[in-house]
């Protein structure tokens, strides 16, 4: 056995086939071993070495080999008592996937190559790897400094600079987003919330039929108020007297005035104005919002004249020509508040109240952190649903180079469903957050018997569903081109702030929501997307994308015509001699000529 192991190790060293894997990636390990690669098992950086007399020279030799930290020992000398100790809580979901049984010959070969620098590294975090070793590894699956792309705040900030790179309107693929830790963006959000409330009131007014109250999606017999959520802020239940209390008659007129003023701003009629935006000062906003809440969320009655109804239709039609997101806004003014740098749906809150968002932002106003804690984004109130259930799409892509930018798009993806029917009356996670880590808390709930129990579909199943709707063309003509364009536009905005390293690559997972017109809306981009086989579909697709990624980054280096599975080249930038670095705080200043 030792002789066989030595022969395989010698061959792997000669062919530069030494690899290391850190994290829950049994598929990567199995595929590389099948290719003749030998694994060097790296120590956990967080563990302190045991200083024992007589081992100093051995430890120094191992550190020179690039390990640092805990020395490696032969498999027969390992202490397995503390195996798995200190695992990060964030990775519990990934740890649920099965791992390979220990193979003595692989352990032996790993011991024999402990002095070798790996030629290939697949890790869940770069920070887990020794700093002295990392620059010496030829191929690495992670890029450093992905904050501008893979955090919610960084993505929001990067996309604000889109106009410097492409003649594309950000609002056509990314729901409006603001960083609450920055005063100018906080004020912009407040103005946006108010303007959206005014537009929503006009929509609600047009839904008035006879003497029925508008704006209420509250089902008969329900004891919950539409738009309310269980959170750190509670709202009193509306009393019967409050519901019967008439709205002040100028409410619709004020909404119309605000929307007319906003149309003027959109038409640049305020270009030489030195005063604050008229949208901020033309009405008493605190009073207006309280009345809007009564109409939208408490079922208060609203009476319209025929003239007002015609005015509402005219104003909304003109706004639709100017605002690409008017169709996804709905009429309840729901917003979603997200922690800036958390994943797996943790800490996300849906709300319909401005004061709740501001209270949350204020609670972290005194933080000494350099980055803001929260972002707030317009919630897509009119998503495409399947069997009345909300879903999103996890779409993979790989970046193999940033300079020049080279992107590969994966043709297969999967859908993630919520556990309960979509409803804006109830804003709990089971209806609105599609993350697998969130929905697994609701395993006993089943939204519709036509959906699988594991709440996952492949893109092939989705295409079959679209064909049943008579829209088989929507996937190739609308959804896929929209996802590709959103990914590419985002990468162009973030590229100057990402750490570029020759030989590195990264597999990303982009999350998209689909509107009722089949347009995709980018929600976020994830580095190191989970490969956990949480369903029959993901077990197959996650294994396939890992296999094809190895083909792309390893096989293709030596054979450009080899198969790369379901990957296709999305974009390869023409090489340039120099690249202009664009700042993020650019502005134009000047004064009026009149």
UniProtKB/TrEMBL annotation:
Which keywords fit this entry according to its UniProt record? ATP-binding, Cell projection, Cilium, Coiled coil, Cytoplasm, Cytoskeleton, Flagellum, Ligase, Nucleotide-binding
**What catalytic reaction does the record list?**
L-glutamyl-[protein] + glycine + ATP = glycyl-L-glutamyl-[protein] + ADP + phosphate + H(+)
- Which stretches are annotated as coiled coil? 302-329
* Ranges of Basic and acidic residues composition bias in the record: 76-85
Q: Where in the cell does this protein reside?
A: Cytoplasm, Cytoskeleton, Flagellum axoneme
Q: Indicate whether Nucleotide-binding appears among the record's keywords.
A: yes
This protein's name = TTLL3 monoglycylase
């Amino acid at each position: 056995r030792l002789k066989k192991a030595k022969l395989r190790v010698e061959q792997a060293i000669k062919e530069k086939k030494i690899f290391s894997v850190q994290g829950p990636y049994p598929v990567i390990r199995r595929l590389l071993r099948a290719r003749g690669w030998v694994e060097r098992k790296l120590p956990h950086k967080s563990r302190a070495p045991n200083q024992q007399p007589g081992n100093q020279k051995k430890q120094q030799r191992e550190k020179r080999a690039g390990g640092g930290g805990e020395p490696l020992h032969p498999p027969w000398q390992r202490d397995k008592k503390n195996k798995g100790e200190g695992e990060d809580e964030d990775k519990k979901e990934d740890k649920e996937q099965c791992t390979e049984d220990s193979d003595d010959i692989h352990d032996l070969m790993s011991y024999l190559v402990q002095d070798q620098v790996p030629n290939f590294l697949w890790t869940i975090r770069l920070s887990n790897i020794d700093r002295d070793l990392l620059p010496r590894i030829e191929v690495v699956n992670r890029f450093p400094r992905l904050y501008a792309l893979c955090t919610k705040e960084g993505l929001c900030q990067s996309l604000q600079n889109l106009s410097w790179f492409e003649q594309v309107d950000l609002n056509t693929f990314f729901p409006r987003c603001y960083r609450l830790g920055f005063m100018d963006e906080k004020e912009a959000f407040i103005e946006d919330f108010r303007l959206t409330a005014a537009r929503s009131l006009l929509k609600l007014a047009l839904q008035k039929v006879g003497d029925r109250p508008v704006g209420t999606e509250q089902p008969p017999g329900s004891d919950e108020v539409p738009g309310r959520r269980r959170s750190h802020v509670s709202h009193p239940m509306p009393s019967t007297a409050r519901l019967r209390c008439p709205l002040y008659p100028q409410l619709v007129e004020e909404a119309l005035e605000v929307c007319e003023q906003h149309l003027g701003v959109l038409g640049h009629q305020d270009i030489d104005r030195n005063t604050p935006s008229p949208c901020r000062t033309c009405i008493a906003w605190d009073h207006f919002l309280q009345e809007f809440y009564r109409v939208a969320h408490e079922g208060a009655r609203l009476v319209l004249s025929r003239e007002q109804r015609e005015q509402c239709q005219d104003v909304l039609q003109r706004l639709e020509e100017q605002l690409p997101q008017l169709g996804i806004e709905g009429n309840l003014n729901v917003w979603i508040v997200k922690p800036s740098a958390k994943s797996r749906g943790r800490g996300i809150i849906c709300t319909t109240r401005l004061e709740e968002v501001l209270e949350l932002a204020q609670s972290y106003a005194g933080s000494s952190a350099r980055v803001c804690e929260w972002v707030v984004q317009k919630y897509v109130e009119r998503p495409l649903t399947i069997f009345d259930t909300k879903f999103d799409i996890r779409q993979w892509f790989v970046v193999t180079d940033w300079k020049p930018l080279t992107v590969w798009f994966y043709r297969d993806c999967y859908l993630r469903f919520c556990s309960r029917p979509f409803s804006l009356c109830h804003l709990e996670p089971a209806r609105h957050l599609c993350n697998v880590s969130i929905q697994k808390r609701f395993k006993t709930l089943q939204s519709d018997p036509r959906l699988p129990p594991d709440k996952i579909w492949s893109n092939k199943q989705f295409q079959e569903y679209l064909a049943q709707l008579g829209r088989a063309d929507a996937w190739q003509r609308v959804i896929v081109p929209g996802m590709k364009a959103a990914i590419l536009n985002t990468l162009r905005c973030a590229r100057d702030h990402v750490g570029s390293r020759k030989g590195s690559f990264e597999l990303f997972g982009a999350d998209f929501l689909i509107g009722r017109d089949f347009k995709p809306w980018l929600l976020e981009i994830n580095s190191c997307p989970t490969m956990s086989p949480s369903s029959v579909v993901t077990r197959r697709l996650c294994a396939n994308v890992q296999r094809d990624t190895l083909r792309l980054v390893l096989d293709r280096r030596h054979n450009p015509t080899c198969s790369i599975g379901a990957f296709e080249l999305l974009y390869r930038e023409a090489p340039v001699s120099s690249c202009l670095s664009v700042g993020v705080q650019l502005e134009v200043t000047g004064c009026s000529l009149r």
